[in-house]
Amino acid sequence: MKIILRRFLVVLPQLWLLSVAVFLLAQAMPGDALTGLIDPDVSPEDIDRLRVELGLNRGWAVQYMEWMRGIFRGDFGRSWHYARPVTEVIGERLPNTVRLSLVGAAFTYLLAIPLGFVAGRYRETLADRLIVAYTFVAIAMPTLVFALLNIFVFGFRLGWFPIMGSVDVRLAPGSAAFWLSRLHHLILPAFTAAILNTVGIINILRSEIIENESAEYVTTARAKGLPEGKVYSRHIFRNATLPLASGLGASIAGLLSGSVIIERVFGYPGMGNLFVTSITARDFPTANALIMIYGFIGVAGVLLSDIFITIADPRIRIR
User: Residue 55: CB partners within 8 Å, gap ≥ 6?
Assistant: First the structure.
């Protein structure tokens, strides 16, 4: 509990600095939500009146203080693009991003841990060389290119998965077919994200297994006649996964906040897609709220990593 409290107190100033930086960057961008409004029925005087009503004519310090007061009340303001409260707009997209991130994280670890273990235990074999070659290809493959390739192969050519959206809108919400459709729409974007996110986990696990093979406790276990399979499962693998435990929270947070390209390419209605739309539409209340949420998710990910590593290895205490 003390660890969590200490970490939380440390990140509060970071979140405050992030809020200041986000707000100032939005203010520094040329124009506002009403810039470039082309409508013959709206006169320049009406546009100026709208700016006054929205508070866009006030100084940035006043706008920032009002924005922060709203955040503490759970109110991120009103979306200029959607003409609705920002919390409602984000609340509609948040569940989709959470589902995509959780399924993507599951695919990532289900793929990466076995591959990393095989590459580490059977190093310099054909299996190890193939896995290492796969990591080189995956790390060099741009997300956009890989996503488009998967859409072409599995969406257009094979027709196995839908290529856009998060559910079939013709289905009745809440029905079994509705949720199966959600899962069907999730698989391809989640798999695409997972394939590219396995590289770091595979490399870390492989190197940790190779390093732990020469440790003294492993030599002792082998000298006692412990079978090789148990040496790897009980000793080497357990200690090799400690770095993965320390990065689990950050990995999940990265999936939550780093799905912008995946959601955009697949037309998936999540927070990443909403972020791009809000930027192009100069919807700064929505964009600022999303950046703050992403910042909080990143901080929470680091906090979760600290908790996971403490649980995995009680000898570690963060001061």
Answer: 62, 63, 66
166 Cβ neighbours under 8 A, 6+ residues apart: 96, 182, 185, 186, 268, 269, 270
Q: Is 197 exposed, middle or buried (0-12, 13-18, 19+ CB in 10 A)?
A: buried
Q: Give Cβ neighbours of residue 50 (< 8 Å, ≥ 6 apart).
A: 34
| Distance separating alpha carbons of residues 18 and 290, to the nearest angstrom | 12
User: How far apart, in Å, do the first and last CA atoms of the chain sit?
Assistant: 12
pLDDT in tens, 210-250: 877 777 777 777 777 777 777 777 777 777 777 776 666 66
Indicate the pLDDT class of residue 33, thresholds 50, 70 and 90.
low
CA distance 104 to 193: 6
φ, ψ of residue 85 in degrees (nearest 5): -60, 140
